[in-house]
Amino acid sequence: MAYRSLREFLDRLEGAGELVRVKDRVDPVLEMAAIADRAAKQGGPAFLFENPASGAFPVAMNLFGTRRRTSWALSSDDFEDHARELGALLKTAPPQSFWDKLKMLPKLGKLAAMAPKHVSSGASQEVVDREPDLRKLPVLTTWPHDGGPFVTLPQVITRDPETGIRNVGMYRLQVLGPRRLAMHWQLHKTATAHYRGYRKRGERMPVAIALGGDPALTYCASAPLPPNVDEYLFAGFLRGEAVRTVKGVATGLDVPADADFVIEGFVDTAAPLVREGPFGDHTGFYSLADDYPALDVVAVTHRRDPIYPATVVGPPPVEDQWLGKATERLFLPMLQLIFPEIVDMAMPVEGVFHNLCLLSIKKEHPGQAKKVIHGLWGSGQMAQTKTLVVFDDDVDVQDVSQAAWRAFANVDVKRDLVVADGPVDVLDHAAGHFAFGGKLGVDATRKWREEGGREWPEVCVHPPEVVARMDALYARLVPGAPEPRRPNIAPPKAASWTPPQGGNLQ
Ligand SMILES: Cc1cc2nc3c(=O)[nH]c(=O)nc-3n(C[C@H](O)[C@H](O)[C@H](O)COP(=O)(O)O)c2cc1C
Predict the structure, then answer these.
(1) Pairing state of beta strands 274-276 and 290-292?
(2) Of 231, 341, 458, 487, which has the highest C-beta tally within 10 A?
(3) What is d(CA 466, CA 468) in angstroms, rounded to the nearest whole number?
(4) With a 6 A CB cut-off, is 280 part of the ligand 1 pocket?
(5) Catalytic positions, please?
């Protein structure tokens, strides 16, 4: 079910008891973040702050605060359903390479109807303000040492100056003045490439920033799609209905017709950069102030009754864990196109996405884990992953405790670590250089003889038929006992259990 407005999504949450309306006067400066952070860490509800202490509009927070809400936001019961559909769709695409397959997406059956549709008018332009003042927006200051207020859930829309292809990215924006924003698009991101393109051509760069509307569009701004795939096409796929766009009033960029707000302006690419930050980031640390381009805002349009969406960025877990989880599930089938041996992938919250990725593979030749490690370090935004740990396919990488046990047991640190230099996330404060540093690959698979392994022991597992009988007995002996958490380990190779024949005792 596609949402025609953020309000429609909030109505659904309210109907399900997942939204709390806040009548109290709460300040966007520090206070809203403190409440929403607590809710995000406890799987609490979404909030609609109806009386912000500053700014003229209500604020919605923690919209994506649970797996269930994020699934609903993506018009699904569970976002794993989308992953399955995407996997099936990609299998039908004829071209061999991953990128070719992605470029094919608009041509594939269902997706053809999902391409963004241009319309002549939209709710996002019901009110047009050509003398805008960003201070009317209830923009949050999250942490005490933040450099100022930051817009944290934007869809930043730019166009490649050469190809005209649209990009939509989620990059935080610092409010520097009534009509000025600092644009925190990082070095490796698509909008940065667009900015470089306009600068080279000596042209100013049009930018539109959409806020709100169907939350699927907000999610898509955070999704690591390749530069030549339109995020609003992907949003159309997720919501099962084309995204409707209207022409921006000042920039001419196509903007979502159903957004709550659209901020439009131009970056003077010949102008000096401006100081951005510090900002309490999703690493849990403050990112230091740095220099970024400034946007001169020339118009703000909005609905008659808009809602301003925001999120807390800070020490994990925060709300973005669910945006990240959706990305992990939705992008797994895409990764499996180039690495068919990959069975599953997990990005535990402690790794804040770019610091740690766990992968299980169906290993069929010596050195395969290292092949996957090197391959992923060359694949899109995965290239910035600092630590990759690869397991055999009988390890459930979603269970971090099980994965840690297997990794510590299976690794010979002299033989199984790949230590390399390469691009790291801009936010990696430990790296010796900006965006460049050390990376670690860990081969935690069973080692074959060709890889220097000796005879490899099996994991201890109770015989399944014994477990079934004893579980029934346990239920009688300990009524109401919780279901056991059992590691996802394949039973021993022998189909049925036979008693040991003396072994070491003889
Ligand atoms: C809440 C949130 C805030 C983010 N803030 C930034 C940011 O300030 N700068 C940035 O470059 N990426 C940020 N990201 C990550 C990007 O949105 C993500 O890498 C996205 O895929 C970039 O899109 P692109 O590939 O079109 O550049 C943020 C993600 C989330 C979920």
Answers:
(1) antiparallel
(2) 231
(3) 5
(4) no
(5) 281
Q: For tokens 């903007």, name the residue.
A: 255
- Ligand 1 atom closest to the CA of 323, numbered from 1: 31
The amino acid present at 47, given as its one-letter code, is F
Amino acid, single-letter form, for residue 129: D
Q: What domains are defined for the chain?
A: 6-310 (2.30.110.10), 339-451 (3.40.1670.10)
Task: Quick: pLDDT tens for 358-370.
Answer: 999 999 999 999 9
Ligand 1 pocket, 170 CB below 6 A?
yes
Atom of ligand 1 nearest to the CA of 313: 1
Cα gap 188→438, rounded to integer Å? 17
Q: Among 390, 493, 377, which Cα is nearest to 451's? A: 390
pLDDT tens digits, residue range 117-148?
999 999 999 999 999 999 999 999 999 999 99
Mean pLDDT of 312-329: 97
Q: Is 194 in the pocket of ligand 1 (CB under 6 A)?
A: no
pTM above 0.85, yes or no: yes
Q: How far is the CA of 421 from the centre of ligand 1 (A)?
A: 23
Residue 190 beta carbon below 6 angstroms from any ligand 1 atom: yes
From CA 155, how far away is CA 142, in angstroms rounded? 19
Q: Measured from the CB, is residue 441 less than 6 Å from ligand 1?
A: no
pLDDT interval class at 393 (50, 70, 90) = very high
226 lines ligand 1 (CB under 6 A): no
DSSP code per residue over 400-458: HHHHHHHHHHH--TTTSEEEEEEE--TT-TTSSBTTEEEEEEEE-SPPPGGGT--SPPP
Within 116-270, strands assigned E span 117-118, 127-129, 150-151, 155-159, 166-169, 173-177, 180-183, 205-211, 244-247, 254-256, 261-267
Compute, in angstroms, the gap from residue 222 CA to the centroid of ligand 1: 5
Measuring from atom 25 of ligand 1, which residue has the nearest CA?
Answer: 224
d(CA 426, ligand 1 centre) in Å: 11
Measure 82 CA to ligand 1 centroid, in angstroms: 21
Alpha-helix residue ranges (DSSP H) falling in 62-209: 67-73, 79-91, 98-104, 109-112, 190-201
CA 457 to ligand 1 centroid distance, Å: 43
